[in-house]
Design goal:
alpha/beta, TIM Barrel, 10-stranded mixed sheet, disordered N terminus, binds iron/sulfur cluster
Length: about 450
């Protein structure tokens, strides 16, 4: 195993969280109010303690309402600085970065951050870094060339039997590693009805399309009746077999997964939901309950995580994440190499890091917990799965394979059979691993 890449220490000085708590007067509403009483029953830095400390005066009725979180997203440096320790230097750097790449964090997701830890893995996904612009020349605006494959505005037809439908560019949170950062500057649009109709007409007229992926932005930012109108129209197209929804709501604002939404999704199955957990600290009780509610409505939940420097780039971090997901009945599906997107270079890892992680997981935990490591090829080439190489040698009808413990095992490879194997014909004995190696050397 090669050592995994560690995050570079943040060069920015940090104010102490305790100092900030003494100065903070922001409970997440637009009014300035003193923080609530310190939690004594929760460990410092835990989500519940952070909620109490930062949003202690917000009643449960608001905290459990996704619209409240959406309205109260943290979108300015001033507001962020009233909640999270930020030095003056860090604040001025953030002001610079957010001119190009804005900021948006839900109060719920902010409460997952340990304010006293500058290397917190949730923080790295949510709070901008000056490296987004100082390393900003590396990468491309649209490495997957989604614009090239757009057949009508908002509809990407890259693979033969499936299409990607982008209904909005609005997200509850702006993830620092987002592939569609290019869209953030013109943020805030929802696809107009005429464009949705054009997308549906295209799908209707192409009977090779059996799978429609609704994504964004985040499609669950749409009100449930509005989303239902689109889903119902897709379901009315006979050749469409499955609908998939790509959303990060279960992770960044699980309150969105409410009874109304789940009942609606349950009416139009089969619907699969792909979400985006990157770190085990995101697998909270609220997130697990949201996934459970989806599953009970007949919506299977899969996870597509992105490999991120300093967030989840070690075997231990991935094991903890994926085992936590399985406990929440969520299947780890893909682990993506972070795309070559401008403004994300500081979060990208070498490809070997991903291969080493898969090798460190495979065999050491249930295969259900091991995602497929994938690169989405720049230039719009599509997804390519990468695996550590377990085939040590190969000759004629024999392969020498390496197992997860590094031991070698020869394996007979049957020829394609055009006729039945004669009765009593036994495979020839295969020699020891060393002999096979000798033969093929
Ligand atoms: S939720 Fe997805 S689309 Fe939205 S900012 Fe995050 S990564 Fe990008």
């Amino acid at each position: 195993m090669k050592p995994s890449v560690k995050a570079k220490p943040n060069s920015i000085a940090h104010t102490s969280g305790k100092q900030l708590a003494a100065e903070s007067h922001n409970d997440g509403t637009s009014e300035e109010e003193p923080p609530g009483p310190a939690a004594t029953e929760e460990p410092p830095g835990s989500p519940a303690a952070n909620r109490q400390r930062l949003f202690g005066r917000v009643p449960d009725s608001d905290w459990n309402d996704w619209r409240w979180h959406f309205r109260n997203r943290i979108t300015t440096v001033d507001r962020l600085a009233s909640l999270i320790p930020l030095s003056a230097e860090e604040q001025s750097q953030l002001r610079l970065v957010t001119l190009k790449y804005p900021l948006a964090i839900t109060p719920y997701y902010l409460s997952l951050i340990d304010p006293d830890d500058p290397d917190d893995p949730i923080r790295k996904q949510a709070i901008p870094s000056i490296l987004e612009i100082t390393m900003g020349m590396q990468g491309q605006e649209d490495p997957l060339e989604e614009r090239r494959y757009s057949v009508v505005p908002g509809l990407v037809h890259r693979y033969p039997d499936r299409v990607l439908m982008v209904l909005t560019d609005i997200c509850p949170m702006l993830c620092r590693h987002c592939t569609r950062k290019r869209e953030w500057q013109d943020g805030g649009w929802v696809r107009p009805p005429a464009e949705v109709t054009a997308m549906l007409d295209y799908i209707r007229s192409h009977d090779s399309i059996r799978d429609v992926i609704i994504s964004g932005g985040d499609p669950l930012t749409l009100a449930t009746p509005r989303l239902e109108a689109v889903i119902a129209a897709i379901r009315g197209i006979k050749h469409v077999e499955i609908i998939r929804i790509g959303t990060r709501f279960p992770v960044v604002l699980p309150q969105r997964i409410d009874t109304e939404l789940c009942a609606m999704l349950g009416r139009y199955g089969p619907i699969w939901l792909n979400t985006h957990f990157n770190h085990h600290n995101e697998v909270t009780q609220e997130a697990a309950a949201a996934c459970d509610q989806l599953l009970r409505s007949g919506v299977p939940v899969n996870n597509q995580s992105v490999l991120l420097r300093g967030v989840n780039d070690s075997v231990a971090a991935q094991l903890k994440l994926c085992q936590g997901l399985l406990r929440s009945k969520v299947r780890p599906y893909y682990l993506f190499q972070c795309d070559e997107v401008q403004g994300t270079e500081h979060l990208r890892t070498p490809v070997d890091t991903g291969l080493d992680i898969i090798e460190g997981m495979r065999g050491h935990t249930s295969g259900l917990a091991v995602p497929t490591f994938v690169i989405d090829l720049p230039g719009g080439g599509g997804k390519v799965p990468l695996q550590p190489n377990y085939v040590v040698a190969q000759k004629d009808d024999e392969r020498l394979l390496r197992n997860f413990e590094g031991q070698f095992f020869p394996c007979r490879d049957p020829h394609p059979q055009t006729e039945p194997v004669p009765a009593g014909l036994n495979p020839a004995p295969i020699g020891e691993a060393e002999q096979v190696l000798e033969t093929v050397a």
